[in-house]
Design a protein that fits this description.
The protein is an alpha/beta fold. Helix content is about 35%, strand content about 15%. It has one domain: Metal-dependent hydrolases (TIM Barrel). The longest helix is centred in the N-terminal third of the chain and has 17 residues.
Length: about 375
Amino acid sequence: MPELIDAHWHAMLIMIPPVPALFDTGYANIAAGVQAERTLMRGFTTVRDVGGASFGLKRAIDQGLVPGPRIYPSGAMLTVTSGHGDFRNLNDLPRRPGLLTPMEQIGMIAVVDSPDEVRLRTREQLMQGASQIKMTAGGGVASPFSPLDVSTFIDAEIRAAVEAADNWGTYVTVHAYTPRAIRTAINSGVKVIEHAQLIDDPTAQLMADKGIWLSAQPFDESIGMGLPASSLDKFHQVLHGTDNIYTFAKKYGIKTAFGTDILFAPPLAERQGALLVNLLKWYTPAEALKMATGDNGELLLLTGERNPYPGRLGLIQEGAYADLLLVDGNPLEDLSLVANPDRNFVVIMKDGKIYKNSLSGNE
């Protein structure tokens, strides 16, 4: 079968919490390298990184210094003061423009509160090699100061990022749960919505009518493992909306990608394939596998001229990257096989190179 692709991954945020270990950049990068190899050995040969300082890790993987998946990096996630991704303490206020927070200094986020700041930080991510730009258009689960119902960026701010990205031939994706946040983003020219669990019927139809991609995650209770207690109520609101978003996606034929959005908990990362199995609540095994392979590969093509890997991904065809998985069993009949890659993936190939081959007894 084709390789698996995770369309919502945070390569730098799996192994460690956002503070304080993240600020030990040497440790953080080594930990991310370890997790990158584990990701590849789970059969995910490509990930779309939607927030984090993963440019160096991508370069090391591409040069063969460490094994890992291809990374489509967004660079620093753009947020607003008090928005999703703003992990400052209250004693860090008031914010002074031009004075960067520690998380901004290491390239994990960028706090931007005007169209001009958005434009500047967007261009900085593109300068570093971002293949797409990530913004937080509404509140989030993991962040301490962002209720789920709030909308954060205004139209002019989102449009500033969209125009800057479009000038570079690529696109903006936004974190958004609510109808208001999603509609603001769509009206501002955004092409992809991450999450959307709290969407309503008219907004879902708008996404379909406009050809907007949905990057959704089939969350289950286990995802709460890596979250602080203060985030659990918000997490359960999102969890209860998961059926909502997939129901609308099927009803209106919204273009849908598969991702996991695993944060801060290495044991959860081992369930990367198991989350794909969760799609069986709404899709057949064939539909789920198509979403995590060919459909995700189609989403990656939105990067246009900024595509760091311009061949086709998620397909087995002439001219595509030679990424292949040999499965001991038929995942079209038993999708649960992908939940245990150690046992069931007997060959893992990325770009023609075999990283695992248990057929001969050699790993």
